Amino acid sequence: MNIHEYQAKEIFRKHGIPIPPGEIAITAEEAESIAMSYGGTVVVKAQVHAGGRGKAGGVKLAKTPEEAKKVARDILKLKIKDLPVQKVLVTPAADIATEAYAGIIVDRASKKAVFMVSPAGGIDIEEVAAKTPDKILRHAVDPRYGLQGFEAMQLGFFLYKDVKQARAAAKILQQLYAAFVASGASLAEINPLVTTPTGEVIALDAKMVVDDNELDRLPEIAALRDESSEERSEVAAREANLTFIKLDGNVGCVVNGAGLAMATMDLVKYYGGEPANFLDIGGSSNPEKVVNALRIITSDPNVKAILFNIFGGITRTDDVANGIVTAIKENPLKVPLVIRLTGTNEEIALKILTENGLSAMTDMDEAVKKAVALATGSKVA
Ligand code: GDP
Ligand code: MN
Asked: In terms of domains, do 64 and 83 share one?
């Protein structure tokens, strides 16, 4: 789950990280009056679940309340990576001497939380990693002990030569780690972590991604979800209990089991196609899940062909077949459908499908090739 910058800042502040104050506005006038209450220059920042807001025109300095109103009006009209901006954060502008990066991610290989810090912050950290990897220091944390003081100091000195600043950074990194653990996060990031001309170290941006599997035990964090800022299809899928991730391709995929869904996406790419989504209808299917899945996939105008790949174990393929038939009766398909199914009750499933004018294949390779060909308009090999 993504949360907004202002929400992440709230959490970081609770853990002691120095962050300038800020307030949320949903209209240009509100932004103006917040700017007025702070006096001086403010920063108006789009609150959307997308990175690179600065580059997209979603972060603007405003010297006067009138200017804050104007830039807020512009930003509230923006779409950043397809997501409409509905809120802005208004915060007093800090004077910046240097910009650094500090982040923590869960590293699957080492099975640990890994810190990444770089004195070259403020811009895309991916670019720093690609072009000047020696400007990034990585450090895996032993979950039994957390980030120890001496480790934090090592990271602090990688960021700053000045002892006082290195110490301030070390403290912030330990606070960031505490926030990360307490929130069930899979990512926590400060970019930029700045020094001011007077030598203070403060966080000007905050990003946090929460592991969905932590939400049940962390109701306060779960309550931070802002559905109006999420991809609509992903919200619908969550409500229908489907694991769904929207992608940019044109082959809609309905698969049972996460592993098979990944393999299906790999194969779609292998045969020159691009998956439109990841979708796992789960082990124990019922027809309703299939109906919901098809509704979500067909609402994506990019989808040019739909591929079912069902390996019936606990999943009964006749349930899936019934779901497909019901869904199509409710809402006739406008794009071609390729069904591959084998396993539990496949004879019954085939009968249901053929009685309703549909057909199914048993070979996964053939089915994927056919779906890709239909989506791209090329000949079936
Ligand atoms: P992002 O582009 O979505 O990561 O948004 P950021 O909050 O990181 O802002 C992008 C850039 O705007 C930063 O790297 C800073 O250079 C600048 N910026 C953000 N806040 C301030 C501020 O308070 N004062 C000044 N002078 N610049 C700021
Ligand atoms: Mn940033």
From this structure: yes
